[in-house]
Amino acid sequence: MKQEKPGWKNLPLGDVVQAGTAESFETGDWRSERPTWHPDRCIQCLQCWIYCPDSSIIVKDSKMTGIDYKHCKGCGICAKECPVKPEKAITMGPEGK
Amino acid sequence: MVKVVAKTGNEAMAEAMRQINPDVVAAYPITPATEIVMIFAKYVADGLVDTEFVAVESEHSAMSACVGASAAGGRVMTGTSSQGLVYMYEILPIASSLRLPIVMCDVNRAISGPINIHCDHSDTMAAQDFGWIQMFSENSQEAYDGLIQAIRIAEDPRLRLPTMVTTDGFIISHCMDKIELLDDADVKNFIGAERKAADSLLNLDKPVTIGLIDLQDYYFEHRCQVADAMKNAKQVILEVADEFAKKFGRKYGLIDGYLLDDAEYVVVALGSTCGTAKVVVDEMRAKGVKAGLLKIRVFRPFPAEEIAAALSKAKAVAILDRSDTWSAQGGHVFTEVRSGMFDLKARPKMINYIYGLGGREINLEHLRQVFGDLQNVDKQPLVQYLGVRE
């Protein structure tokens, strides 16, 4: 069913909306490259969480636990900044079909 | 009790600001508006007001700070002129589309170039399309009264539109004039102790986002809301003016006529030139010429129906513009008035004078020439430049 959007008479005046709605607006489908987290190599330094320009590194109890693919745009900054050697704990690859 | 004092236009506006006691003022100095905020800053330093004064690095920042403070729910004011207003242009339509009732003291001044600090209406007229209510003042008293009314108009829940009250640079802003001041308590009662914002960034009980990206599916609706508010604005401005007249005795309209009812030859003008025109209207009347003046006090929203009704019986009308559209078709006021008159069954002949650019004097002799031309209107070109050397 197509949802009818409100007209100007029924909208709140002046582009005012409920706060915090970015979470429910899924923007991960912009992604053309996909980060993969390798928990076995991760040292829990949280550099990825610090550098992520979105909020797509999921942290629970002060531990990196995964990537929020509903919002990650695939910029690759987490993989670039990951300090683990010789193989990084986050690697980038093409987005799957 | 009526208190009669001598004040320049800038001092009168600063005094109104002290009595309004806004929550936030953000401003950057520019001639000839500097003094308004300079005087007000002294009130802040002396503790006479509760205002948070934000000294910014530019007018762009001043208006941006005003938008932020107003979105946070505050009663917010600023003052500027000319290039300062031009530098605010980018932010002005944001204030109106977000429905933030910021009130601005705007001192009309020529825009560069060549650089010039004196009066014309180019700065304000170029801001006519940004969704701000625009009020012009003939003298310091009108500027003072207009600024106090502007708070009520801007914050009216039916409007929530930013409003600029203008004076003419130097002619009003720096000339000493006798004005009647209201009591502080009367001003406070008239405008209300504080703004009642429907939504505010500081209301933690109802967190909101204000001014997010608005694309093909919502932008049009939000702009349409501004158009609708502007339609309501004439009624609100008149209601506020009526209440002001009942309480304080001075009556203002969207337009104000001077010997207009039976006038055959009418000059239409804005701002300080109206005072000069009234003298010449009196002279013409003494000679038996049915001369009159139509002063446009509110330019946005444009009172087209009121003007058409007031001019419908005139024989010839001269519309005076202190700015040019560079359309080669006349000035801003001419274009609007002519359009507003188009649907009348019988229209007077209308001609346009562009005058006073960069503070060029307009005196009694110029107005005499205009009324003379009106009595011989068929021989006049559509647009003339009055008082310029050829």
Automatic annotation (TrEMBL), chain A:
Keywords: 4Fe-4S, Iron, Iron-sulfur, Metal-binding, Repeat. Its cofactor is [4Fe-4S] cluster. One of its GO terms (molecular function) is 4 iron, 4 sulfur cluster binding. The keyword Kinase does not apply. Pfam families: Fer4_21. Residues 33-62, 63-95 form the 4Fe-4S ferredoxin-type domain. PROSITE patterns: 4FE4S_FER_1, 4FE4S_FER_2. NCBIfam families: PorD_KorD (TIGR02179). This is 4Fe-4S ferredoxin-type domain-containing protein.
UniProtKB/TrEMBL annotation, chain B:
InterPro entries: PFOR_II (IPR033412), Pyruvate:ferred/Flavod_OxRd (IPR050722), Pyrv_Fd/Flavodoxin_OxRdtase_N (IPR002880), THDP-binding (IPR029061), Transketo_C/PFOR_II (IPR009014). GO terms for molecular function: oxidoreductase activity, acting on the aldehyde or oxo group of donors. Residues 263-366 form the Pyruvate:ferredoxin oxidoreductase core domain. GO terms for biological process: carboxylic acid metabolic process; response to oxidative stress. Keywords: Oxidoreductase, Pyruvate. Belongs to the pyruvate:ferredoxin/flavodoxin oxidoreductase family. PANTHER family: PYRUVATE-FLAVODOXIN OXIDOREDUCTASE-RELATED. This is Pyruvate ferredoxin oxidoreductase. It comes from candidate division WOR-1 bacterium RIFOXYC12_FULL_54_18.
